[in-house]
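Need residues for this backbone.
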């Protein structure tokens, strides 16, 4: 059985039936109001008091969903992507029904589907605003972030990201999350322990959006894991563990790096956002192990995975945003003046200079305008200069140049720089010596 099957085709009707059934259709769709009422009524019955009394005999049964009911509610899930259906569900107070299910049902599959339907409904602005302004529903949905079921967590994160992306209600959700500090622990636990890539990517997108929306919340989350409780025995339970945001982000990045470039991009951007505040930089570099782990992961990505010497220059188009975040974080660590061994190895400078120069060369290649000069002043070419791709390439170029500047400033002698540059790019080093004879390396 498909996880979320499509609604079955409407059976053929004769002309008399079609005329009489016109009022049963939802909006301009062929979906039946009567059928949908039946499914929602079945949901109400499932969570009615007489059906939710727990006992040792029926508790296991409550964890499972009848196959026929699952098929029907999955059809509603699929239908809810249609705006007419979503609006009809809203008018029928379906969110209240789903809230009752989430508050009372112990069935993971049913909870996942209900949150998924709400997530589809929230894609439409009017409904998103209505759902977001329902305080009780908001509390129930945030409570779903404590769930142990990955599919339910995934749908909850998807719904939350949708709401955070709506300017009109984003601050409502930020405020609610600030009122529930335990959400930090739940999200950190997911990032540090989950192997579900889809879930990690979606949770990362939520964290990235939250940090981008509200610096105060980001600072609170940075400080939440800053102090380890005094006198806490090592054998204390996992529940009492203090999560630190940076190691959790790094662990999630390691999980997604080989399977999802967009997910890695998200986690690298989270690290970049952390470097924009002093507390965030301290969270990265103050603990030697955390700083080293961050540096080693990012160094490995840029020197051994992205933009390699045998890659076509155009591949930079796929990697430009993640590389911009990585170089930005590495540059911030490098400029932080922390006295750590991982920043002193000469090969670090050599490898980074090699990668940075290659990136800059590839940026230049990607930004070249069409060679046909007759078209150079056309509207199409002017639009090219303003595209998002061009904008991101400019950002990558600026960050790469700044990082190179930081590395060059750390070198004690120009001769040292030229010796390294000769190993990386003999042509460039020769051009510099020709233009500035005084820089010539003495032998």
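Answer:
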């Amino acid at each position: 059985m498909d996880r979320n099957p499509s609604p079955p085709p409407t059976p053929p009707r004769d002309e008399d039936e079609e005329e009489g059934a016109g009022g049963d259709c939802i909006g301009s769709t062929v979906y039946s109001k009567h059928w949908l009422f039946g499914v929602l009524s079945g949901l109400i019955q499932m969570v009615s008091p007489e059906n939710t009394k727990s006992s040792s005999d029926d508790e296991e049964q409550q964890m499972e969903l009848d196959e026929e009911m699952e098929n029907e509610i999955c059809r509603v899930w699929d239908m809810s992507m249609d705006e007419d259906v979503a609006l009809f569900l809203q008018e029928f107070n379906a969110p209240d029904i789903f809230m009752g299910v989430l508050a009372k049902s112990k069935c993971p599959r049913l909870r996942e589907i209900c949150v998924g339907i709400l997530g589809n409904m929230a894609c439409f602005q009017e409904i998103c605003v209505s759902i977001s302004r329902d305080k009780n529903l908001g509390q129930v949905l945030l409570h779903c972030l404590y769930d142990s079921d990955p599919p339910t967590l995934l749908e909850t994160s998807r719904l939350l990201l949708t709401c955070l992306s709506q300017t009109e209600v984003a601050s409502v959700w930020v405020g609610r999350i600030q009122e529930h500090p335990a959400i930090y622990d739940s999200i950190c636990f997911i990032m540090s322990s989950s192997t579900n890539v889809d879930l990690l990517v979606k949770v990362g997108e939520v964290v990235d959006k939250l940090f981008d929306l509200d610096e105060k919340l980001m600072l609170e989350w940075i400080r939440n894991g800053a102090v380890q409780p005094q006198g806490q025995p090592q054998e204390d339970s996992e529940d009492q563990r203090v999560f630190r945001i940076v190691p959790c982000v790094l662990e999630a990045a390691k999980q997604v790096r080989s399977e999802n470039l967009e997910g890695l991009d998200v986690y690298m951007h989270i690290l970049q956002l952390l470097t924009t505040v002093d507390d965030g930089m301290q969270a990265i570099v103050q603990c030697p192990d955390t700083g080293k782990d961050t540096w080693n992961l990012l160094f490995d990505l840029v020197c051994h995975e992205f933009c390699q010497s045998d890659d076509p220059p155009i591949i930079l188009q796929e990697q430009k945003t993640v590389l911009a975040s990585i170089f930005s974080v590495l540059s911030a660590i490098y400029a932080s003046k922390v006295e750590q061994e991982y920043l002193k190895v000469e090969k670090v400078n050599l490898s980074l200079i090699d990668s940075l120069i290659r990136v800059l060369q590839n940026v230049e290649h990607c930004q070249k305008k069409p060679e046909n000069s007759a078209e150079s002043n056309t509207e199409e070419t002017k639009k090219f200069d303003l595209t998002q791709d061009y904008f991101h390439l400019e950002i990558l170029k600026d960050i790469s140049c700044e990082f190179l500047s930081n590395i060059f400033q750390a070198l004690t002698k120009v001769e040292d720089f030229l010796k390294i540059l000769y190993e990386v790019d003999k042509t460039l080093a020769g051009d510099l010596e020709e233009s500035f004879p005084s820089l010539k390396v003495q032998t």
